[in-house]
Structures are given as structure tokens and as C-alpha cells.
């Protein structure tokens, strides 16, 4: 079994780093036809067949059961217009990634309105999203939550800002470098009837004080949601280690569980790469945390790219989970 696991992980690494989500056209030879006497043979008709994108999660953990919920946290990187790594260059790679994985729930960070419209269009009619720009007037980066509406039905939603005045749009505190916020949605799972809160955030990249205070505020808000299960996605700008204060607050104190503790995992990578070579066993700053009652069967860090182009300067993280009945 140990040798087989190594083979599977190697295959997953190769898939994620080279062909995951790509579409390859294969030539299928037409049936042989014998021309009539004296006729000029015509060129055979060779139809193209498009191979569907390959899902890294499916390769790792097999097909999902009907009750399984596929979740992704993805810092998109804002829609820059300057090459290299502009949104125009990254959008096709993002489209292929999402076509391959088809998560039921996607918590995104850094997306701008025009970029989020592109993603919603690329995801197709089955998807919808909820979000708001973090700056006054609803402008700026969103903590947009995308969801497959054939699977999930939103019951209510809201936003709060990571500041001393969380109900004031655009408010900022604790020496934070940028305005930071949370978007949350209460969903009903159409497959199982279970309800859960999806909570999505992006903590400050400069101030440790802001990250710590933001984590405490999130803890308080989650506690106020009551006994309904929680799925927390985000870029926490803090390492997922026991001595990381944000991680300790949200796991050891708030009682959430890191999906990376799943029994089946893909290769470990640092989740921010800045378009540089990937770092094996590097810092995980992008997490999916869940309530204890949620079962997580598989987790991976998706290294999808096409022709060397990554969809973002962060790697998306994924988890396959099951809500309590």
C-alpha cells in the first residue's frame, strides 16, 4: 500500500503541474472507404474529439459520492492589466481549472467586479455568487462566494468589516494596511437538506495585530451563528502551524479543524508562489477550516498551470467534505 500511495501521489503531482484542466484534441481515423474505379480518392474526414478536463481531486480521491461537497478557497489575484500575469493571460487558465474541478463552493479573495463577472460567465449557468467590494460604496476587492445553485440554496447572507466598527463599510483598524472584510452565506444543501454557514475572508498582509484581532472577531461572529456547521475559507496571510497565532486562535481556541488533516492528501506545497518555482512543504497561508461535525475525506493544493502560466500568484486549495446529517 505504501508503494501504491507513492505512485498515486506522483501521478497527482504530474497531473497538477502539467495537464490538469487542459483540453486536448485527438484525431480519430475515419472508417476506410474503397473508392469506385476511376474515382479520385478523397481525403478522409478526421473528426476532432475533445477530452474533458481532468480533475485533480477526482484523481486523488475518486468520484465524489452524492453527499460529498467539493469546496475550494482561491486567492484570484486582482485583475491586473499589465503583462506578465495579467488577468487576460490568467483567465483562460482559471477557466480550465474551474472546468476541471467544478467545486460546489468557492471562496475567493482579491477579485474585482469585472474579474468576478468573467468567472461567473466561465463557470456557466449553474453557478451564482454573493459578494461586495470591501471599500466604501462596494468598490474594490471582494470576498466573493461562488456556489453551484443546483446543489446549494442561499438562505441569508451578510458582510462585516474586520475593524472596531464591523458594521461600517470600508472601516479599518488595528494598523491594518488595507480594508479587510468577511462575507458569509447560510446555505441549505439540496442533496442532503443540511444547513451550513460559508464564511470567507482575507486577513491583512502587514499587521500581525490586525490579523490577531480579525481572527478574534471572526471567532466571535462564528460563535454567534450557533450550532450550525461552519466552513471557513480564506487567505489568512499567516502560516498554518501550531505556533502561528491566527491558526491557534481559529483552531485550538475556536475549535475549527484544518481540512489539511484529511486522511487523503495531495502533495504539500507553499500556497503562495508569486509566479516563482513552487516550494515543497512551504507555508500554507490559504486554508479551509471546518466545524468538528464536518467530515473531510480529502484535501489538496492544486498546482494547475498551462504552458507555464499559473491562474494566480496563489495556489487554490480544495477539500472534499460531508456535512453532518
UniProtKB/TrEMBL annotation:
* UniProt cross-references to SUPFAM superfamilies, sorted A to Z: DNase I-like
Q: Keyword check for Ion transport, yes or no.
A: no
Keyword match Translocase: no
Residue span(s) of domain Endonuclease/exonuclease/phosphatase: 72-314
Ordered alphabetically, the record's keywords are: Endonuclease, Exonuclease, Hydrolase, Nuclease
Question: What's the superkingdom here?
Answer: Bacteria
Q: Which is a Pfam family this sequence falls into?
A: Exo_endo_phos
GO: which molecular function terms?
3'-5'-RNA exonuclease activity; endonuclease activity
Matching entries from InterPro entries are given as: CCR4/nocturin_mRNA_transcr, Endo/exonu/phosph_ase_sf, Endo/exonuclease/phosphatase
Q: Which CDD domains match?
A: EEP-1
Q: Which protein are we looking at?
A: Endonuclease/exonuclease/phosphatase family metal-dependent hydrolase
Please name the source species: Actinoplanes xinjiangensis
Amino acid at each position: 500500500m505504501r508503494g501504491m500511495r507513492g505512485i498515486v501521489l506522483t501521478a497527482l503531482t504530474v497531473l497538477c503541474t502539467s495537464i490538469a484542466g487542459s483540453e486536448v484534441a485527438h484525431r480519430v481515423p475515419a472508417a476506410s472507404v474503397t473508392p469506385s474505379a476511376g474515382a479520385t480518392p478523397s481525403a478522409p474526414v478526421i473528426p476532432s474529439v475533445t477530452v474533458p478536463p481532468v480533475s485533480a481531486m477526482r484523481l486523488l480521491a475518486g468520484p465524489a459520492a452524492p453527499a460529498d461537497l467539493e469546496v475550494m478557497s482561491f486567492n484570484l489575484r486582482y485583475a491586473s492589466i499589465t503583462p506578465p500575469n495579467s488577468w487576460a493571460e490568467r483567465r483562460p487558465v482559471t477557466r480550465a481549472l474551474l472546468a476541471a474541478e467544478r467545486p460546489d463552493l468557492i471562496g475567493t479573495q482579491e477579485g474585482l467586479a469585472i474579474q468576478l463577472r468573467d468567472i461567473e460567465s466561465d463557470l456557466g449557468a449553474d453557478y451564482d455568487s454573493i459578494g461586495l467590494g470591501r471599500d466604501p460604496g462596494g468598490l474594490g476587492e471582494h470576498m466573493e462566494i461562488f456556489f453551484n445553485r443546483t446543489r446549494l440554496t442561499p438562505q441569508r447572507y451578510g458582510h462585516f468589516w474586520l475593524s472596531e466598527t464591523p458594521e461600517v463599510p470600508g472601516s479599518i483598524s488595528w494598523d491594518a494596511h488595507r480594508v479587510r472584510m468577511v462575507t458569509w452565506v447560510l446555505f441549505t444543501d439540496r442533496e442532503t437538506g443540511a444547513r451550513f454557514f460559508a464564511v470567507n475572508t482575507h486577513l491583512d498582509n502587514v499587521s500581525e495585530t490586525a490579523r490577531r484581532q480579525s481572527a478574534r472577531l471572526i471567532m466571535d461572529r462564528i460563535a454567534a451563528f450557533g450550532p450550525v456547521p461552519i466552513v471557513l475559507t480564506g487567505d489568512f496571510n499567516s502560516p498554518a502551524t501550531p505556533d502561528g497565532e491566527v491558526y491557534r486562535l481559529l483552531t485550538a481556541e475556536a475549535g475549527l479543524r484544518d481540512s489539511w488533516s484529511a486522511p487523503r492528501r495531495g502533495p504539500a506545497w507553499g500556497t503562495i508562489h508569486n509566479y516563482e518555482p513552487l516550494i515543497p512543504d512551504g507555508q500554507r497561508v490559504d486554508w479551509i477550516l471546518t466545524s468538528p461535525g464536518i467530515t473531510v475525506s480529502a484535501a489538496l493544493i492544486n498546482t494547475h498551470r498551462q504552458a507555464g502560466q499559473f491562474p494566480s500568484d496563489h495556489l487554490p486549495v480544495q477539500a472534499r467534505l460531508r456535512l453532518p446529517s
